[in-house]
Amino acid sequence: MSAIYENTTISIELADRLRAMPKIELHVHLEGATDAATVWELAQRNKVTPPVARLEEWQAMYAFRDFNHFLDVYGFAMQCMQTADDFTFMVERFLAEQARQNVRYCEVFLSASFMLDNFPQDEVIAVLTEGIKHGKEKYDIELRFIPDIGRQVPETRHKVLDFVLKGFEKGIFIGLGLGGMEVGFPPKLFTDVYDEARRQGLHLLAHAGETVGPESVWGAINDLKVERIGHGVRSAEDPKLLEYLAETQTPLEVCPHSNYRLGVTPLDEPHQMRALVDAGVFCTVNSDDPPMFSTDLTSEYLLFAKQGFSWDELWQLNLNAIKASFLTDEEKEAYRAEWKEFYAKVDK
Description:
This protein is of the alpha/beta class. The chain has 15 helices and eight strands. It has helices spanning 12-20, 36-46, 55-61, 67-79, 85-100, 121-139, 157-170, 191-199, 214-222, 239-248, 256-261, 273-278, 297-306, 311-324, 329-346; strands spanning 23-29, 103-110, 142-150, 175-179, 203-208, 228-231, 252-254, 283-285. An eight-stranded parallel β-sheet has the order 1-2-3-4-5-6-7-8.
């Protein structure tokens, strides 16, 4: 695996701070956050034949090679999900990993377009509700879920919206997302369900400005009227878009290792985050599909530190995640108090 651009050495003190600080994550996919060992266990449990004979070989396959390989691995991971109870297993493993990094709150994407024909909706909602309860009791982590529409299967959009609305009534789904292949599937194809989702009080998000340039971000803003943008890093290519994002403070969910591995950012260049932050764009730090890109949320912060971001800048990005979240004002204040207490201890 080729090395990602780094131009500075960071102190042990800074690295320790980044590992210890309380965090919020706003852009992570449950399926993509499921590690190789968990997928292997699901395959054995559900009698799905893996593409290799041994766990060690499957773990080696998780190392990113190219985009098509990533899609193959992601697709097999989803194939191994056969029952609603599998979500319980995945959420438990996800929570344990987030707790290890002191992630205190997560807004987690679900690939709804590819699951609704295989699982009864009410059962999925029930096990995810239990997962939220378990996460709070065992790990003191709050979870909320955002089912998303796969762009390449626009015919599923109404079914996904119905699913989201059911979970919204139960308090476990907070919004509607749009993911999948940007090329050939512009945001305007989904205006009907986004208009209805807005009418129903859902939060609205979309992946944009990743494999397609600034026009995809403009489409998410103008056609879908989203509140947050997943990735959005190619906004750096359009000065007018940068100006708009800075003026409106529309949050971007930035995932650096994902961008490097998928070729959105050249490996030998600094990440677009520096240009975005310097332009006044409101950014947050996230991990996307962490085990598939050999990363985690802490490693994303460490990467930016190794590209010259200061402790104060990284701490501000961490604070940004609270503000950009879909928590209530009261909940945000509680997290800010916790963050403030941590900051006071380490910044003496």
